[in-house]
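Look over this entry.
=====
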Amino acid sequence: MQFAALAPLLLLLLIAGCSPDEPASAEVVRPVRTEVLTLRQIDLIGVFPGEVRPRIESQLAFQVGGKLVERLVQVGDQVKSGQVLARIDPQDLELAETAARAELAAAEVERSRTGADLARYTRLRESGFISKAEFDQRRAAHDAATARAAQARAALKGQSNKAEYSILHADADGVVTAVDAEVGQVLAAGQPVLRLARTAEKEVAFQIPEGRLQAVRDLGRASVTLWTGGPAIEATVREISASADPATRAFAARVSLHDASDSVQFGMTATVRFATPVEQPLAQVPLSALLRNGDGAAVWVLDPQSMVVKRQPVEVLTMTDTQAVLGPGLPGGTEVVTAGVHLLRDGQRVKRLNGAGAPSATEQSTTAAMLPISRRDGGDTASK
């Protein structure tokens, strides 16, 4: 009875086991974005971000101590050479100058008295009425009075200078970049009051990756453009640090600007370009197109006939903030994948999201194609 009850269930299981296999799942076709490469003449030494700075920036201070009673400039003010910037209370200095003037007057009177005495004793000595010892004593007294008068005169001049030091003047044309003291503050001699950046000489400070150091040093000349726009400014490398920054492993450097206009302001962001043309045209791809592993860099090349991708190793000569400059190897017109590269495998079928024949990034951005920009933090992967 129990076997008869189980027989229909066993029959159903046998029928299910003998049913044909389900068809295999269809191949996944990945959607990707692509770009058609365009070969262009590219300069390869590089472009580096920098900041406009003064060659000379001085901390101005009073040469004497006192209470700050007036400050006539603020941060950002343009000043001329000799312009009054600040004043300290001159009362004590004026009193000291008056005292020094009185000391000089007394010393001059004493010198005149001893001089008259010396003239009389000279005649007495010639007549034989005094001894040589007494005459020498009178002459020594006059010499001492003359020396004290000269000392008092020098002291007065020094005190007069101190009185003039109560006024702080600009020592050159420039712009005030910082204020370190406020009215009412009692200052010591030499304590910074203002920071003045001279506008006569302007520079751009930037960093050079160690892989580009020798090339930049050999070239020596550059062109600078401001991120605010305007024509390029010729520049010359003035200074390269002897050692690398321990954090970025890049070398601090400065270029001097030639004939920089007043529109070039300190603190502006600039681009320093070092140009040396390459003999053959090269291609650029977005950074998103690069596939990196232990063997180096590669891109996915799309066959437009079969719509399958193939992994193609490439040489990265340098990198910009958004682009990578590839070495020779890929011909112009090659279509590469620019998005979705980490989801692909050799021989995989794909479909375009942007349509066939889409313009490349190099065609859309001529400025970026002309000169590669090294990373702001100095990390130039391709140059190392």
About this structure: DSSP finds six helices and 23 strands in the chain. Confidence is low (pLDDT under 50) at residues 356-384.
